Amino acid sequence: MFRSRPSLSLIPLILLSLASLPALAADEGHDHHGNHPPHVHGVGKLDVALEGNTLTLHLDSPLINLVGFEHAANSSKDKDTVRAAVKNLREVSRMFATDAAAQCKPAEVQLESAVLTPALLGEKSAVSSEPAPTDGHADLDGDFTLVCASPGALTAVDVSGLFAAFPGFHSIDVQLATPKKQGAVQLLPGSAIIPLN
């Protein structure tokens, strides 16, 4: 009886596929959020960019840092907790204080979490359609835009207000890009100033 055998030219491709299986399995075990990288409770990420007179900040945080849980807000208590967090986050000038001489004013705030409704976050509609996580972990993403009348006078952003409002943050890893400086810095409670120059 005739049996087909794989072509010799296919053997390297088969070996390569088999060798990649453990790596794929390992990735599934650590990626809890689809396109989102895994998060660490207590740690936030903040991207800061200054372009022209516009200062933008993108906060990526485990939801637990902000409200103390990572599930949908179904109870009245949970909803009140989220509303209080949202109220604080929308006080942009208090969360991200800038030099008075720069005259920066909040222009836009967008908040998003896959487990919280846009209405509860103060949004009219969902910012994106990221599916709800199924592993019990959820994030909140915030985009904050400030417009500065005198951006040349902007020397630092003080994030002390964010740490004070949300003691769930133990540290925040910052990526910074301005015309004068690019780099990374880690903020801690009591050491929460981002130098921009």
3D architecture notes:
- The chain is of the alpha+beta class.
- It has helices at 11-30, 63-67, 76-89, 92-95, 160-165, and strands spanning 43-51, 54-62, 97-98, 104-112, 139-148, 156-158, 171-177, 182-187, 193-195.
- The strands form 2 sheets. A 6-stranded mixed β-sheet has the order 4-5-2-1-7-8.
- A hairpin with a 4-residue loop joins β7 (171-177) and β8 (182-187).
- The relative contact order is 0.19.
Topology:
Layout: H1 11-30, E1 43-51, E2 54-62, H2 63-67, H3 76-89, H4 92-95, E3 97-98, E4 104-112, E5 139-148, E6 156-158, H5 160-165, E7 171-177, E8 182-187, E9 193-195
Shape descriptor: globular
Main β-sheet, in a few words?
A: 6 strands, mixed
- Per DSSP, the total helix count is 5
Q: Which whole number gives the mean pLDDT?
A: 84
What is the helix/strand order? HEEHHHEEEEHEEE
Kindly, what is the distance between the CA atoms of the first and last residues, rounded to a whole number of angstroms?
A: 77 Å
Q: Runs with pLDDT <50, length 5+?
A: 1-35
The portion of residues forming beta strands comes to 25-35%
